[in-house]
Specification:
- By secondary structure, the chain is α/β, with parallel strands linked by helices.
- The protein has a single domain (3-208), classed as Aldolase class I (TIM Barrel, Alpha-Beta Barrel).
- 39% of the residues lie in helices and 17% in strands.
- The protein has 9 helices and 8 strands.
- The protein has an 8-stranded parallel beta barrel, surrounded by 7 helices.
- α2 (25-35) links the parallel β1 (12-15) and β2.
- α2 (25-35) packs parallel to α3 and α3 packs across α4 (76-82).
- The longest helix has 18 residues, at 49-66.
- The radius of gyration is 16 Å and the shape is globular.
Length: 211
């Protein structure tokens, strides 16, 4: 994926979570893409490596079919094995500069940040975008650190790469992030946990376009 396309891909960014699968991961992700998701990150903390790779190959093919970037969370081995579009790493994962060396200059590198200092370090290490949060309380990540909207604004002002907000974002609070400087939002349960994934995604996309 060309780097100049990254910003538009950040508008409505889906992070997968198997806890809410309705039919299959493939089918649920496809419903989300049909509803307007602009990027898909596959996050798997408990799968064995071979199953992760096999499932990631399927989701990559799905994303390729619809022209949506496919990102792997935290696992360089899986990302390289399936030739994903990119990888996202947290502050407690592999160092961003080391990840960049492994994946080369052309793949997308996303990094989580909670402070201006972390944001600047990630940018200098080669990050293409930042995921900042949790901006609201969330049940999907046990170790999430809450980030104020004021800090979010300062992070957006401190780096020239796209910043997306994550953490507890849903239909009821997404517009509280308006004018913060973010280029999009990353969501989990606001899409994955909904009875009608496609409809929920479409409604969320309408609000995301107002940011």
């Amino acid at each position: 994926m060309k780097k100049d396309k990254i910003q538009e891909a950040m508008r409505l960014y889906l992070v997968t979570d198997r806890r809410w699968i309705h039919h299959s991961l493939y089918e649920d992700v496809e419903e989300a893409i049909k509803g307007g998701v602009t990027c898909v990150q596959m996050r798997e903390k408990h799968l064995d490596i071979s199953t992760f790779i096999n499932d990631a190959k399927d989701i990559k093919k799905l994303c390729l079919k619809y022209g949506v970037p496919f990102i792997v969370n935290d696992n360089v081995e899986v990302m390289l094995a399936v030739d994903a579009d990119g990888i996202h790493v947290g502050q407690h994962d592999m160092q961003a500069k080391d990840v960049r060396k492994c994946i080369g200059p052309d793949k997308i590198l996303g990094v989580s940040a909670q402070t201006v200092e972390q944001a600047i370090q990630a940018y200098q290490a080669g990050a293409d975008y930042l995921g900042v949060g949790a901006v609201f309380s969330t049940s999907t990540k046990d170790d999430a650190v809450e980030v104020s909207i004021q800090t979010l604004q300062k992070i957006c002002q401190s780096v020239p790469i796209p910043v997306i907000a994550i953490g507890g974002i849903d239909m009821t609070n997404i517009l509280k992030l308006k004018k913060s400087g973010i280029k999009g939002v990353a969501v989990v349960s606001a899409i994955m946990a909904q009875d009608d994934i496609q409809k929920a995604t479409m409604q969320l996309k309408e609000k995301a376009l107002l940011l």
